[in-house]
Amino acid sequence: MRKILTSDSARIARKELLEFKRDGRLLIATIPLFITLSCAMVVGGQHYASASRGQAVAQREERARWLDKGRLNYHVAAHFGVMVFKPYFPLSSYDFGINRYMGSYTLLEAHRENLFQDKEADHGLPARRLSEMTVAVVLQVLVPLVLVVLGFDLISGERERGTWRQLLALGIEPRKILLGKAIAFALPVALIVIPILFLGSSLLVLRTSRWLDTLERLTALFVSYLAFAAVVCLATLAVTAFSGTSRRSLTLLLLFWFCNSLLGPRLAVLIASEISPEPPPVALQTHLDRELEAVQTRERLRLATQVAQYHVGSQGELPESVKARNIQENEADNRRVTAAVFQELYSAQIRQEWLSEAAGFLFPLLSVQGLSMGIAGSDLATHIDFANVSSAYRYRLEQILNEEGSKQDADTSVNGRELWERVAPFTYALPGLGWALKNHLIALAGLGFWLIVAVALSRLSLSRALKPDLELA
Amino acid sequence: VTRVLFRHEAGQLGRDRVCIGAALFLVISVAISIENAGRYASDQEQSLRVYKQREDERLGRLVLQDAITVAKVDAGELTIPPRTNNPLFTPLLPLWASYDSQRDTMISPTSLALLAIGQSDIQPPGLRALWPGRYLYQTEPIANQTRSPLRMAIGNFDVTFVVIYLLPVIFIPFAYNLVSGERDSGTLPLLLSCGVSVERLLLTKLLIRMILLSVAFWLPLIGGLFWFQVELFTPDTGLAFLGWICFVLLYQTFWIALAIVVNLRGWSSAKNALVLSTFWLLLVFLVPAFCTFACSSLWPLPSPTELINRKREAMLDTRIYDIEQNREELRFPGSRINRYIATFCGNHPEIGCAPPGSRENGAFMGGATMEEIDRLTSPLTKHYDAQLRSQERAMSYLRFLSPTSVTEPALVEFAGTSVDRYRRFQRETMAAHSRWRLYFNILGYKKRDLPLHPADYAVFPYFEFRDPPMHTIVREQVVPGIYLTVVIMLLLWEALPSRKVI
């Protein structure tokens, strides 16, 4: 330990840290980071705690309501339906992902499949999109900026002051100098970020019942962010080594930060939506309405045929078993049509997500963002998986009720708790980490690509650092 | 001297690849952003038109179907069975007409929607009124989840994004070394000895840069307005566009004034760049985010889950779904359903209900139960409204911490894509829906099993959303406008005594 502390790299790091302290950059850069990250951690944790508690309570009460709704006709019960509430996963306290922009519950009821309703973003103050303060946004946007502000003149500044030549003349290996400088600008950030994340994560693991899964996900999340931070650090070192002046270094790095954090993601999703457009908002509803009208027409034709076949005056006089079978057939038809329309929408959205993550090869933030949302379970794939599970549950619920209905002999028959209990409670388990990573392979590849580029750049910057008198421009 | 200086600067700027590149980048950004938002608005308008046309056709068919049925009933060829839901007779009776002949309400994009997508991608473009078939919601959003959530989460590339985020960033490389650049290259004393004052040097440099940036910004913008054939000369659109221009100019002037202050402090070019970048980060990114963060944390809203859970509970308490049981209970004067009806009749004396316990009052069963659900959920909805009001009130003060928090909502408001406009639409739709329900409650009561005639359809209380006059929106933006002007003047005032440039 002592050897490390007295090594050349450690001495250089200490000197740089002293410089940061003297010119006030250390405080200017790290205090906002500390405040922002702490606030984001506390608020994210509180949001998760209250939202997950609210969801669990609502789902439990909904089950109790389903069982206690009293004696009802099976079809009236199907119309009463079951509400399913989208669960919150522990790591969504770090990364809200798309959660605020998707509905949080849906009613599973007879005849129709509903989209999820009531986005959180519909409520409260106007949504600030990616400038919302979450741990993920701090790690993706603010940490790189702090690293840039601390590291932009590490080598170019020495060159401008003419001290780089003297430093090299001391006989210290350039590798060690660069390592010392890298430690100097990464250390203050690490000393703020790691303890806060460690504390927050420990509380999260202690609070959750699926602690092993949460631990796995936390590890994957930290590795992703560590890789992203390493890319930013190595890129900053490379730029400051390649730039003749601090001005050029700062301009280039700020440009990179702006493009990576703000411009790139917006442009990427814009291009992705051009390549794979989703149906215009109202057009999808029109399409769905048309399809559902066709379902209704088919049902009416079926009823007319049956009225003739059973020699009765109206559909109400058909045998109860035939009516229940009709409802079931109508359900199947309805589900097929709705699933096709929703699938078209989801496919377009999934393609868009893939394309924007592919743009991570240009803007590394998009790679880490995709991975982070996937690992946290706040991405589109998880939402669609949940929607599919709830849709299958709805179909099963309707089947159970209609099967019971087909055994009855009058539409005035009522059912009770024994039937309601035959419908199992709704549960949803988040698929494992492997599934999440598989959905974001392109983001994983993008981050890997950037790591390779950054390592290559840092090796190049090592050879460039050996040139003390780079032309000042 | 000024002319020579101007020409010299123009030449210098023309040779500066970074500045020309930045200006070109701005041109491309404005063009892309206006094309993106313009196409989004026109797509939305087009699909709303198709939707409305489809609605008109559907209602036309209903009226025609009813006219034929009424003729048959009048001719004695058809008899209406009581409480029918036979497709042959619907929506002939008021109960079904109230459901089938409803129109979905739509909010159309304004002519200036191409200037800001704002909250229009998050808020639903229409509401479908649901009654009496559905009990959970009175309305449901149309096509609420069709836009990619990732796109919503990341945000839009529109002109407002260019103005608020991009323009100041592009402005920084143009403005960080106006005086310090001359001093670094050793030409400042020479210029001063030629009788050029620092102010003149600074203003000339700024002027030429502003001309370049203005051309790069306004030219593609005006081109975009012509491309999308925006009618700027109608009174409301003209006034909104004028307001929008004023705020863009004030925001740009703020950054110019800040650049003047920083340039006259006598710092190095690198420090100027760092200070301007820090201001950008603080004012554009951190302060607005913290304001939202503080307001939402101090006055948290009840979650949608909590709201809907309470509503389901109220549904169970009122047993609104169990129509047969409720009909049975109508026979008993002190029953739960009769209590709801009595309260309902008390709340609406204009109906002129039959005496309590009368069977005729059964027509109000649905409406009365829904009012009871509203009453049971009202503590939570009132809490929600109070928290939202507190958030909005706090934000209306906190926004003055940053010119960005003042400018962005104003630009979105003028473009007609603000959250306020969508909430106004939702409020008015809900109020209209309540009127609609009451109208049919009364109609159903008065014409219980009597068929509706085509003439009845002509007087149905349909609702169409209309924006308030633009001058009311302009009036709301006067204080933010004055604030920006005062901030700019204070900055310029501060710049005068701080000339430490040499």
List strands and helices in order, with pairings.
The complex is a heterodimer of chains A (473) and B (502).
Chain A: H1 2-5, H2 8-22, H3 25-68, H4 74-80, E1 82-85, E2 103-108, E3 117-119, H5 135-151, H6 156-161, H7 163-169, H8 174-207, H9 211-242, H10 246-275, H11 281-309, H12 320-358, H13 364-376, H14 380-406, H15 417-422, H16 433-439, H17 441-465
Chain B: H1 2-15, H2 17-74, H3 94-100, E1 105-106, E2 126-129, E3 139-141, H4 149-154, H5 159-175, H6 180-184, H7 188-193, H8 198-227, H9 235-263, H10 269-298, H11 304-318, H12 323-329, H13 336-347, H14 365-398, H15 403-415, H16 419-446, H17 454-458, H18 470-476, H19 478-495
Antiparallel strand pairs in B: 1-2, 2-3
Helix pairs in contact in B: 1-8, 2-5, 2-8, 3-16, 5-8, 5-9, 5-10, 9-10, 9-15, 9-18, 9-19, 10-14, 11-14, 13-14, 15-19
- Proportion of strand residues of chain B: under 5%
Most extensive chain interface and residues per partner:
A-B, 91 and 89 residues
Secondary structure: helix percent of chain B: 55-70%
Mean pLDDT of chain B: 85
Major pleated sheet of chain A: 3 strands, antiparallel
Shape of chain A: elongated
Main β-sheet, spatial strand arrangement of chain B: 1-2-3
Q: Specify the overall morphology of chain B.
A: elongated
The pLDDT mean of chain A sits at 86
- Gyration radius of chain A (Cα, Å) is 29 Å
Radius of gyration of chain B: 31 Å
- Terminus-to-terminus distance of chain B: 20 Å
SSE string of chain A, helices as H and strands as E: HHHHEEEHHHHHHHHHHHHH
Order of SSEs of chain B: HHHEEEHHHHHHHHHHHHHHHH
Q: Looking at the chains present, what oligomeric state does this protein adopt?
A: heterodimer
Can you count the beta strands of chain A? 3
Instruction: Compute the separation of the termini of chain A in Å.
Output: 41 Å
Low-confidence stretches of chain B: none
Class by alpha and beta content of chain A: mainly alpha
